[in-house]
Amino acid sequence: MAGHNKWSKVKHIKGPADAKRAKIFSKLSREIFVAVKEGASDDPDLNPRLRMVLLKARQANMPLDNVQRAIQKATGEGSGASYQDLTYEIYGPHGVAVMAEISSDNKNRTAAEIRHILGKNGGTIASAGAVTRLFHRKGQIMIARDSADEEKVMEIALEAGAEDFNSELEGYEIITEPNAFEGVLKQIEDANIPTETAGITFLPELLSPVPANAVESIQKLMDTLEDHDDVKDVYSNAEFANGD
Predict the structure, then answer these.
(1) What is the mean pLDDT of residues 175-197?
(2) What CATH architecture applies to the domain 84-133+206-240?
(3) What fold is seen in the domain 6-75?
(4) Phi-psi category of 161—alpha, beta or left, where left has phi over 0 and alpha has psi -120 to 50?
(5) Does the domain made of 135-204 have the CATH classification 3.30.70.980?
(6) Which pLDDT score, from 0 to 100, does residue 17 have?
(7) How far is CA 116 from CA 1, 122, 129, 231, 236, in A?
(8) Distance CA 166, CA 228 (A)
(9) Closest Cα partner for 28 from 240, 224, 233?
């Protein structure tokens, strides 16, 4: 999930419970499979989509054996499963904008299941473009405050071509244009600065303040969407009043 609290997403990726971790690995295996199929290559140097998924897998501490099995499944004989990328534009409780990125092998089944989730959790399908226009696609690198000196991180990031640098209580956020992301990340890694998360994401143009009494309903909608097997990522423009 993203948009309502960038650092809560870091915790979600880095330290999930065992049951959650198994689901994350299963979803990543599918993403690897699709990336190899769509990119027609199991070489990350020749397949940018696979390169980004492998970065996600590394950040989630996905075992190398799992990664290799997913790649072998995609390149093996008879691996004929076909997946379609979909983006669901959603209005959640209190008018919060939500985007769900999905990879489905049966879009009709997925549509019925997503609509069921929305119906039970106060969400509705938005008209095409109504939600996507509220977000922009960016590279995002998150670094814990105790991992490196602020001035050093900022200098490296901006010299490498980062668009923005934010110093926050938990750490540092580096924003890049998508085509500059890998170059900036390489400079950070070459300086031996560990990252908490790094990837291409969707960031809201403006945050939508949400009162404390609405936090639970919005969180439940996003958690339920994210728990669906076909959902890869969920983004929101919610800004909770309590800072969560």
Answers:
(1) 97
(2) 2-Layer Sandwich (3.30)
(3) Arc Repressor Mutant, subunit A (1.10.10)
(4) left
(5) yes
(6) 67
(7) 20, 10, 22, 14, 19
(8) 32
(9) 233
